[in-house]
Amino acid sequence: MSVPSRFCKLLLASLKKKSTSHRSGADRAEESALRDWRNEALEAMLRAVVNAPKSEVSFRLFAIAGLIGMVKIPKLLSDGDVSRIIESFTDIIIQERSAANSEVEAAAISGLAVTAHHSPIVTSEKALPTFLAELPDNPSPGSGYERVLEAFTKLSTETQVFDTVVLRLKNKLQAALQQEANITYIHALLMAILFAFSYGSPGTEEGIIKFSYFSDIAKPLLDQALGLAGSDARSLSDHTSTDIIGRISNIILKSQTTHLQNQVLAEYESSFSSFGKDASDAYSKAAVIASLHLNAAFQREALTPESATNLLGALARTANSQSTLPDVQLSALRQTALVVNKFVPPSNLEQSLISTSTDVASLLGQARSAESIILAFSVVKGLLIQGKSNKYTTSYLQSLLELLSDATLGSVAARGFVTILAPDDILSKENHCIVSGLYKQKTFNQTVPAISESSKSASPAVKANYLVALSGILRWLPYSIIENSLATLVLLLLQSLDLQDQTHQDVKSATLASLETVITQNASALFEHASSLISRLLASTASPDNTPQVRKAALRCLTLLPTQFKREAVVPYRRQVVKRLMGCLDDGKRAVRTEAVRCRTAWLSLDQEDSDEE
Predict the structure, then answer these.
(1) How far apart are CA 211 and CA 9, in angstroms?
(2) Residue 427: helix, strand or coil by DSSP?
(3) Looking at residue 62, what is its pLDDT?
(4) Which of 40, 127, 404, 423 is 20 to 30 A from 265 in CA distance terms?
(5) Among the residues of 22-101, which ranges form H helices?
(6) Can you name the residues that pair with 204 across neighbouring β-strands?
(7) Which Pfam families does the entry link to (predicted)?
(8) What would the pLDDT profile of 377-396 be if each residue is shown by its tens digit?
(9) Domain layout of the chain by residue ranges
(10) What is the dihedral of CA 584, 586, 590, 596, to 10 degrees?
(11) pTM listed for this prediction
């Protein structure tokens, strides 16, 4: 056995025993052996990492794992040894930027995170300057900075390195702005800062992230997004930049005291009051996006009922305007649900909605439009999740359900039901929202039976509206909620697979996800519909009529049938299915071809069972 191999066995044994407090004489002997072979093993592993052929991926990964293990053993290596390991990892990341070496690069990036944890000072002195030198101020096309930026950012997982990483990223961003770097690079640097705050280890005071991060990092960026940084500063008011900056601010602010939050609110209140006044102004648009994340961070007491009503009115004007850009409109809609859920007290709800014309009766009145209908769904979503205004939600949902029969705007309402239960990280307890534990069950009870019943008598012109709405609701519900209604829902789910319009591909995809759950959890509910289910699934595998996502989902469902259905229910369709799958094996998408191979194998196994029986 070679020295590195024996050393690695000892290393693994030492790492397993590292967490135990009792150390036997044998353990001390193993530790002594580790130190005896340390130099030879270090040299051998470094040679393997640096000099081994690039094609020897497994060998190099083994060596990297060994080096990482050595770093984890306390006092085994000197700072100079750790520095050499860091250098080998940084060389891989900088010099081997290719898909063929992605596994080795990923291992090297993980290795640097380990060195940052166990030797933060050495890592900061060795790796950070090396990476910074490789990050340009204005990259040329194809410069391949992404891997370096990823490795640099992941060093933020160590608290002692976090501040240095974030400060260097901020400085690099300002340099890139001054050099008029392309917007893709600007977004990449902003995303790196967001990653650091989302997954890194920022400093805390009394268990709360330090407020100074907002003053030093987020606020200067926010001022640039809102046009408050002076005329010489390059704007960051585009949608993506503002959204990322808003998210960074949210992470820092949502755990702060009400006093500090009120300070921030007072500083930006004038900027946020510009909603709906000038839809063409870039900073006004940015204010809608930024305020979504800041208002999400603020506690419920931050806004008075009057301020909340004024904000709701401003958001309604923005969301209801046909000239509002889609990204800005989406932010206004999400914030509408937020304000209704968190800032408008139930006792003031009716007055606030009526005074701002955001009550559903006004929004769905004779002057209704696609924009007002979508806004109505945002209001209802905020109330549903809150669960404290049942009187209004029941009435509002009934009005929205009645709209499905409208031949002109019923399709807009159907799409609204797709969004009403869709997850939104803004509407969360972490953002101080009121989240009822029963809102999904209540929504199901108030909508699905009514949709099922109305769809039976619906004219062909509006039948699709009911199917789209039903699929949109079911896609977000756990199986336990729909289980007792499967007898009614199965037929409607099958009918949803008959939707031919290309705009309904996402509906078919959601329907197939629901059917996959039913097949897995309670296949017996589908036994009597085996023929229509199989024919519809096969039709959904056809290209180009269906998107790759739909084709793949249909194949997954088909793959389950031979094992989940009774054998006598699927055997009659074996030849038909296998024959139709031949076309899927030549599909233009690899993921679809892979799923088709699995599916065909599952159905061919039925032939094997026949042979075994004979």
Answers:
(1) 47
(2) coil
(3) 86
(4) 423
(5) 25-51, 57-72, 79-95
(6) 209
(7) MMS19_C (PF12460)
(8) 999 999 999 999 888 999 99
(9) 345-477, 484-614
(10) 30
(11) 0.87
What confidence tier does 575 reach under pLDDT thresholds 50, 70, 90? very high
What the block records as the tokens of 303 is 């806004």
CB atoms within 10 A of CB 345: 12
The stretch 502-507 carries a mean pLDDT of: 92
Helices 505-522 and 486-496 pack at an angle, to 10 degrees, of 140
Three-state SS letters, 212-280: HHHHHHHHHHHHHHCCCCCCCCCCCCCHHHHHHHHHHHHHHHCCCCHHHHHHHHHHHHHHHCCCCCCCC
Token pair 């000892």 in the structure block, residue:
10
pLDDT given at position 445: 95
> How many other C-beta atoms can be found within 10 angstroms of the C-beta atom of residue 295?
25
Pull the structure tokens for residue 361.
């009766």
| Residue 19: per-residue pLDDT | 46
Could you tell me which of 118, 67, 58, 56 has the C-alpha nearest to residue 90?
Answer: 67
φ, ψ for residue 209, nearest 5 deg: -55, 140
Is it the case that residue 441 has pLDDT exceeding 60?
Answer: yes
Q: Which long-range contacts (C-beta less than 8 Å, at least 24 apart) are formed by 89-92?
A: 89/64, 89/115, 89/127, 90/126, 90/127, 90/130, 90/131, 90/151, 91/50, 92/49
Query: How would you class 189 by CB atoms within 10 Å of its CB: exposed for 0-12, middle for 13-18, buried for 19 or more?
Result: buried
- Answer yes or no: are the C-beta atoms of 308 and 344 closer than 8 Å: yes
| Exposure string for 374-392, b = 16+ CB within 10 A, e = fewer | bbbbbbbbbbbbbbebeeb
| Three-state secondary structure of 115-178 | HHHHCHHHHHHHHHHHHHHHCCCCCCCCCCCHHHHHHHHHHHHCHHHHHHHHHHHHHHHHHHHH
Residue 1, pLDDT score: 43
d(CA 253, CA 407): 46
Q: In whole angstroms, give the CA distance from residue 244 to residue 183.
A: 13
Q: Per-residue pLDDT for 205 more than 60?
A: yes
